[in-house]
Prior knowledge:
By secondary structure, the chain is an alpha+beta fold. It has one domain: Nuclear Transport Factor 2, Chain: A. Helices cover 36% and strands 43% of the residues. It has four helices and eight strands. The strands form two sheets. The protein has a six-stranded mixed beta sheet, with helices on one face. It has a two-stranded antiparallel ribbon with strand order 1-2. Strand 7 and strand 8 form a beta hairpin. The longest helix has 41 residues. The radius of gyration is 24 Å and the shape is globular.
Amino acid sequence: MCGSFNLETCPSNTQADATVFVLFRCPMNTRLIYALLMVCFSWTAVAWSAEEGEEIERTIKEAAMAAATFSETKDKQAVLKLYTKDYVGIQDGESETRDSIEKWLSDYESELTNGSTLRFIGAVSNLQVRMPGPTAWATYDYVFQAIRKGELEAQDSGQCTTLLRKEGSAWLIQHEHCSKTRSMK
């Protein structure tokens, strides 16, 4: 270990760029080792963030896919497992909870059992993820289509902002706000 160190202010052109760094008084090879260790630790943080970002993207896309394939799978848990127990969302001004999603899936399943040919297709694009810590948020565009007997019955498109929370090893949707795109007059 080195004998002494000083805390100094890094020379800077602006106050916003000012940082504090440690000036080690040790042999050149020891400073090189410290520099290499700092690079290695920094790279680990970048790699971790990229992996976490991919997991968040996967959660959002999986939620869209699970809802779109529900008519074939009738697997409510494939959808619900992606939402926190305290989920609260807004869809075009209407509040929704995890319970209301479960009720919608049950009602849809009943319609399917009674012979309904209504199917849904969902697509996510322009997905941007930001991760400030154990929570994250993502923005994306969506297209949602209702198909009956092979014919397009309805289509919505818009934008969503989703807040996610890490629970165990999984990223779960805690809040989502989606709104239809309206034309400008």
